[in-house]
Amino acid sequence: MIRAGMRLTLESGHREPTLQQTYRCKVVEFTEDVIYISYPLNEETQRSAFLLKGTKLLATFIGCDQNVYTFPTEVTGREIKGMPVVKLFYPGDKKLKFIQRRNFFRVPLTVKAVIESEKEQQDVMEIMTKNISAGGIAGSFHHSLLFNEKDFVVVRLSLPNREGALQHLELKGEVVRITAPTSCKVGQLSIKFMDMEKQTKEMMIRYTLKRQLDLRRKGLL
């Protein structure tokens, strides 16, 4: 399951939200019970982190099947493998915990999204997203209803990262659920993403995973 070049997300203090730190790194080499990783980069400070031997961590990665897995690990030492590396204990594939996508990836996010019809008339409406996942978005709107369930659409939105930069996306989707607004309630719209390129899908998985970890560290999840 583990392979060289794979990205890992590491959490320290994951049982204590106020002490949590998140790091990212890459797998340099691995054996049956040891993973050699590049020096972890602290997500908050954007600096290399020095993790002491014995530091317990929770590792998360995206597998070849595009599912997310986690496993407990700890720092066991350091070596030189053409470059300085950190050694992590690997408990084996049988100890991996599979994370259900529908439970893991849907995270709260409020940004403006533009929805356009794929039809010739080019209907356009704006929504405010409520949550997002690698599989779709849900949002709310106040104005007139322009789409119906099973309509094919194009979704344009920009995802903010911690540094304030924006990742602009244009994604194909299908309207799977829609409720018209009333005098008492805003309208609700859910869209399932379709035909997403592998690179974009992996980026969305990483983004929603990172956002979930950030929100959990802040005690908001």
Radius of gyration: 20 Å
The parts where pLDDT drops under 50 for at least 5 residues are none
CA-CA gap between termini: 29 Å
Overall, the morphology is: elongated
> What is the mean predicted local confidence, pLDDT?
85
The overall strand count is 15
Q: What does the main sheet amount to?
A: 6 strands, antiparallel, barrel
Query: DSSP strand (E) fraction?
Result: over 45%
Helical fraction equals 10-25%
Count every helix, treating DSSP H or I runs of 4 or more residues as helices: 2
SS class: mainly beta
What is the H/E string?
EEEEEEEEHEEEEEEEH
- Strand numbers in spatial order across the main sheet: 1-2-3-7-6-5
Helix and strand topology:
Elements: E1 7-12, E2 21-30, E3 34-37, E4 41-42, E5 56-62, E6 68-80, E7 84-89, E8 97-99, H1 101-104, E9 107-108, E10 112-117, E11 124-133, E12 136-141, E13 152-160, E14 166-179, E15 187-193, H2 198-217
Antiparallel strand pairs: 1-2, 1-5, 2-3, 2-4, 3-7, 5-6, 6-7, 6-8, 9-11, 10-11, 10-13, 11-12, 12-15, 13-14, 14-15
Give a verbal description of the structure.
The chain is mainly β and 221 residues long. The protein contains two helices and 15 strands. The protein has helices at 101-104, 198-217; strands spanning 7-12, 21-30, 34-37, 41-42, 56-62, 68-80, 84-89, 97-99, 107-108, 112-117, 124-133, 136-141, 152-160, 166-179, 187-193. It has a six-stranded antiparallel β-barrel. A hairpin with a 2-residue loop joins strand 11 (124-133) and strand 12. The model has no long low-confidence stretch (mean pLDDT 85).
